[in-house]
Design brief:
The chain has 24 helices and 7 strands. It is mostly helical.
Length: 602
């Protein structure tokens, strides 16, 4: 078997790993982010020796294969083979983190790409300074108006506090992206545990590895957006909820509440939509005592008081989360109930409001501080546009998660075989539907067509893993082993298509997405590099004349404290420089025209 593995590697790499000089060059390429084409498949290659050992041990008189099969088919309900389960859990986490980290090397030393990322960095930096918000630039605040940043008496991110709190410690360490890469690994491990909880170890292992190799998840783990912290909270909620439902453990219910509360502090509507089906099931059990699964460690005769203790354990973290939101609102907007997000929409982008006929309703609230270019980008949401968006989000989420056809086949298998698994499996597609329905009343389809429903990705992967388990069980019992190989080939093909580029015929989705994100990051990096050359080590104020036709790039990004060696301000045209130059007497002035991308020293 090991000879076969050496042959596989040799096929891709020739004799590079046999010659010391070539081996050194190969290692250098790996560390620089140029990894071989077979790298995405190493998790499966590394599992071949284990499988081969199991097959060899299935001969008469040997019991190892029986142990392997027992472990793969064992569920969390029986707590089987804890040491081996821990090893596989670590393998899933390491592979997931490795894929995320290596993809991140493509963006090494480049600043963020999206407006939202800069807003979250301001939020994280603000928390590191020990406050909720920063004072505005009193002489003329509008100079530092920044996309997705509230600048009305307080200079603060418009977003909810969870994401900034997650980024803050990693920002303090000097690498804010590390936090999202760690979240990617933790989510993969939790998905492994969810698959194990709902079905068996084999389902969990497949789900964890598919999660680790999902191109969309890998890419977004290198973007400073709210999705990965949110998904981490939701994955913790999902696992702890299912385990609490089985065991009745108050600790599990408390963990479930903490996970959902943290997700709410990042993306509240997403958390609510994701948790809705589970909340309904929990409410039914709380008030009626009826179990929701065929097998449960919890006695069906639990009293209402026992169930109420579980409800308190689940609900108290949510209450704490709401208190944090209220305090944040008060500190930034002056009102306990008005969020920075709401105030930002009303002030700068009223056409972006949630709901149908958003443009018509928003135009009735236009004020003097509306960002005309960005606000005017909004489309008026009609039923036709909403239908188009739903289709786009469903298709895009499948494509970026694993692949359209494999996931369509998986959901059909799970839905048409409800008696083949635990009833909780029906909550997985229910949560997917709930998330999509919650975002119907929003006019934008989302970044890359799916970011509003990004958190459905682990749910799709769980459905794929469970469909594989059910089909393999049925086909093996019927002697249709060839069908198992065909299904496995479909999975491998989906992974190959997502990660392999055949030039000039097929660029892999991951490589295409990396190039798409890398371009604006390079523009921002070039902007900053030119400033460093022009200021010649002296403090500088850069006046940016925006390009109204390009709303995707906005160069006005600043530290949370509006201090430092370089500040970037917004002006309408070159004549405004004379009017505001005196506000920065100790800084060298530089003018940047975003449309021509030309710098000038006035």
């Amino acid at each position: 078997m090991w000879a076969v593995l050496i042959g596989v590697v040799g096929y891709f790499e020739g004799n590079r790993w046999l010659d010391p000089q070539s081996r050194s060059q190969a290692l250098t390429e790996w560390l620089s982010g140029t990894y071989p084409d077979y790298f995405p498949f190493l998790p499966f290659i590394l599992l071949f020796p284990l499988a081969w050992w199991g097959f060899r041990s299935s001969r008469p008189g040997r019991s190892s294969f029986t142990k392997i099969v027992g472990w793969m088919s064992g569920s969390a309900e029986h707590e089987v083979s804890a040491p081996l389960t821990l090893v596989m859990l670590c393998v899933v986490g390491v592979v997931s983190f490795g894929m995320s980290w290596r993809t991140g090397l493509n963006f090494a030393a480049l600043p963020p790409a999206y407006h939202d990322e800069y807003s979250y960095l301001i939020q994280a930096e603000t928390y590191l300074h020990g406050r909720w918000a920063n004072p505005e630039f009193t002489p003329q605040p509008e100079l530092f108006d920044q996309v997705h940043v509230l600048n009305e008496g307080q200079f603060a991110s418009r977003y909810f506090p969870g994401t900034g709190a997650w980024i803050a410690p990693f920002l303090a360490l000097g690498n804010p992206w590390l936090g999202h890469q760690v979240a990617q690994a933790l989510c993969a491990m939790l998905i492994f545990l969810v698959g194990r909880e709902l079905s068996n170890n084999g389902t969990g292992l497949l789900a964890g590895l598919l999660f680790a190799l999902s191109p969309g998840l890998i890419l977004f783990s290198n973007l400073l957006l709210a999705h990965h912290p949110t998904m981490l909270g939701l994955c913790l909620f999902l696992w702890a909820f299912l385990r609490g439902n089985r065991t009745g453990s108050l600790t599990c219910w408390l963990l479930a509440g903490c996970g959902l509360s943290f997700a709410m502090l990042c993306r509240p509507m997403t958390a609510a939509a994701f948790g809705l089906p589970f909340g309904i099931v929990f409410a039914v059990w709380w008030f009626t005592g009826k179990e929701t699964r065929q097998y449960s460690d919890v006695s069906s005769t639990t009293t209402f008081m026992v169930r109420t203790r579980s409800a308190l354990a689940l609900g108290l973290p949510l209450v704490l989360g709401f208190l944090i939101v209220f305090i944040s609102n008060k500190q930034i907007t002056g009102s306990y109930t008005r969020t920075p997000y709401e105030l930002y929409l009303d002030t700068y982008t009223p056409r972006h409001v949630y709901g149908f006929n958003n443009v018509i309703r928003g135009e009735q609230k236009l004020g003097p501080k509306v960002l005309q270019g960005y606000d005017g980008w909004a489309q008026n949401l009609t039923m036709k546009l909403a239908t188009h968006n739903v289709k786009t989000r469903i298709v895009s989420s499948m494509r970026w998660t694993l692949g359209l056809l494999p996931l369509l086949a998986a959901i059909v298998v799970v839905l048409v075989s409800p008696r083949s698994g635990r009833r909780e499996w029906l909550l997985i597609p229910a949560a997917i539907i709930s998330l999509h329905v919650a975002h119907i009343p929003y006019w934008f389809e989302g970044i890359m067509g799916w970011h509003y429903v990004f958190e459905t990705a682990p749910l799709w992967i769980l459905l794929m893993a469970e469909a594989t388990h059910r089909l393999f069980t049925a086909w093996r019992s019927q002697g249709h082993h060839a069908m198992c190989w065909c299904w496995a080939a479909m999975l491998v093909l989906a992974i190959v298509v997502n990660h392999s580029t055949v030039r000039p015929v097929w660029p892999s989705p991951l490589e295409r997405a990396i190039a798409e994100v890398k371009y604006p990051r390079q523009l921002y990096a070039s902007f900053r590099t030119n400033i460093e050359e022009l200021r010649n080590g002296q403090p500088a104020i850069v006046f940016v004349i925006p390009d109204p036709s390009d709303i995707s790039m906005d160069y006005v990004t600043n530290p949370a404290t509006l201090s430092g060696a370089v500040l970037v301000a917004r002006i309408k045209d070159q004549k405004d420089v004379k009017l505001v130059r005196h506000l920065f007497p100790e800084r060298n002035a530089i003018v940047f025209n975003a449309k021509t991308r030309q710098f000038e020293i006035p």
